[in-house]
Amino acid sequence: MKFVDSVNIDNQLDGLTTYVVPTKIKDVITIAGSMLGGAVYSKENNPRLSSITVSMLDKGTVDKSKYDISNILESIGAEISFISSNHHINFSAHCLRQDLPVVVELLTEQLRTPEFSPDELTLLKKRVIANLERSKEDTKKQALIGLLEHLYPIRHINYKNTIEESIEFVNSVNLSDIKKYHQTTFGLGSINIIAAGDVPSEKFTGLVNNSFKDWGTQKLVELDIHADANKRKHATGSMEIKDKTSSDIYIGQTVNITEEHEDYYDLMMGIYILGGNFSARLMQTVRDKEGLTYGIGSSMSGCSYGVNGHWYTWGTFAPKLVDQGIKSTMEQIKQWYENGITEKELAAKKTTLSGLFKVSLDTTSGLVDKLLSNAEKNRKLTFLDEYHHKINDLDHQSINQSIKRHIDIKKLTTSIAGSKA
User: Given CB 3.0 to 4.6 Å as the disulfide criterion, which of 18, 40, 139, 344 pairs with 417?
Assistant: First the structure.
């Protein structure tokens, strides 16, 4: 499909844009949308405020209890869900074409007039804290937290709080904070809504515009997207978690580029070849050849929305194999850094990434996710049409130069979480 020719865009309502993609699927509609206002927009006061507020949206509205909402959705076989990501408040829905008006009306009501019941807040906080307590035993999560603590100062967008800090933040959330956050953060200004499937374009746009037309405007805090990361240095940190059968490691480093940087796709592809999937170098060597791990991989993260991010390699090892696993992993990283990637590796991964992109568009859920992410980053539809060219035009020599330019293997940080051997 060609996105420019297939997507109907409407932005008649200031601060809200709809994207409609009719597909061959019959009777079913998938909706996804978002507005700015995720965790980073509540970070200054309480990093957990956004997620707690969003989790309260399906607990009842001013006019409907959570049971009323559940009964309505169940009676028509529809779904509505909400989640807070790092930068956005996201919502999604699935319904039959004939029930579209009911779902749009209910979705809007939940976003605009949530009840924020004190009893529901008490129950929610207990559940969230219980989950956080359990995550203290999650070696992968703890190792990642340790890495990001080393890479970023506490006020940086990419900094991640410890589990104990998160529990304290959840405990401190109150109804007054939630209502104030909802009043200032929710509203018109940055809303994108995507619908795909058997969706009537004009009807959908009319329903959405009519439902949101008299909503107020967001009053978002200004983010410091240019905050400096911590200075790169060689460092190792560890957290002991007793009685675990495996330990997780993260080896990482900040990179002074965003997704819009001219070297981003070169570096992304280079790191993907190192450890992006099951046929990548790390899996082929540290796992398949040496048998040291069940899982290992590399990726880039935190580079969106104008923020400089980081790259990392993750692996899980038996406690007695941690030292050997780190040594083997570092040997592969060193070879990758010094010798670069090959043309053969690049050709294979070009096929893989292009194929994954096409497969992701085979379902309405994948289609709306791609369109929403594109809209959130203020990209034109032509970006999606030209994505395969960005991948296919990559050159292995340029990738190797970018690896040398942006990575310093002498200043990698290692974070370990798990049981000692």
Answer: 139
Rounded Cα distance, 86 and 172, in Å: 20
Instruction: State the Cα–Cα distance between residues 288 and 279, nearest whole angstrom.
Output: 10
Q: How far is CA 303 from CA 112, 254, 261, in A?
A: 31, 10, 10
The number of CA neighbours under 13 Å toward the Cβ of 377 is: 18
Separation CA 196–CA 376 (nearest Å):
17
Return the pLDDT at 421.
Answer: 74
Q: DSSP per residue over 164-203, as a string?
A: HHHHHHHHH--HHHHHHHHHHHSSBTSEEEEEEES--HHH
Gap between the Cα atoms of 323 and 306, Å rounded: 36
| Widest pairwise Cα distance in the chain | 64
Query: DSSP string of 115-169?
Result: ---HHHHHHHHHHHHHHHHHHTT-HHHHHHHHHHHHHS-TTSTT----HHHHHHH
Residue 154 has pLDDT above 80, yes or no: yes
The separation between the first and the last C-alpha atoms of the chain, rounded to the nearest angstrom, is 53
Contacts of 224 (CB under 8 A, 6+ apart): 155, 157
Tokens of residue 186, six digits: 């929710």
Mean pLDDT for all residues in the chain: 96
Q: Tell me, what's the pLDDT at 40?
A: 94
What gap in Å lies between CA 262 and CA 73, rounded to an integer? 46
Type of residue numbered 242: K
How far is 70 from 364, CA to CA, in rounded Å?
24
CB-based contact 54:82 (threshold 8 Å): yes
- Tell me the per-residue pLDDT of 391-406, one tens digit each, with 9 for 90 and over: 999 999 999 999 999 9
- The reported pLDDT for the residue numbered 365 is 95
Strands 28-36 and 88-96: antiparallel
Degrees (nearest 5) of the Cα angle 279, 259, 138? 55
Strand ranges, E, within 170-294: 191-197, 235-240, 247-254
Q: Which H/E stretch holds residue 384? A: helix 382-392
What is the residue-wise DSSP string for 319-363? GGGHHHHHHHHHHHHHHHHHH---HHHHHHHHHHHHHHHHHHTSS
Whole-number Å distance between alpha carbons of 195 and 229: 38
Give me 16's structure tokens: 């809200």
Residues, the chain = 421
pLDDT at 171 over 80: yes
